[in-house]
Amino acid sequence: MEIPQKKTVIVTHHGRRSGRPYKVTLWYAVQDGELWLGSLDGDRNWVRNMEATGTCDVDFGDGPVPCQCDWAKDPAAIERFRESVKAKYPIASRVLGFFVRGRRQVACCARPVRQ
Q1: In total, how many domains does the chain have?
Q2: Which strand ranges, in their side-by-side order, compose the sheet holding 106-112?
Q3: pTM of the predicted model as reported, rounded to 2 decimal places
């Protein structure tokens, strides 16, 4: 999957109980050529859904691409994602950081599923 240099990506995730599709627009980072998604608040529904299903579809405007979500367990990997987001979104990321201090922070590598 070619990862364009855009500000956001549309992610479709499925409800962990209902299976219904939901769309959310997210910031993202590219690390070592791979797409990383995450949140400063790991209790958001999209995070909980993607943790439960392990999948999502990402769409940069050329149509959805099914992906497997590999969630970071290592705090250093989550911190690396945070630093990548800070570099890409220098002002907004710091402002938002004030509102979510002390919450569970998460990050996942969204790898395309080979079909």
Answers
A1: 1
A2: 21-26, 9-14, 55-59, 65-71, 106-112, 34-39, 29-31
A3: 0.88
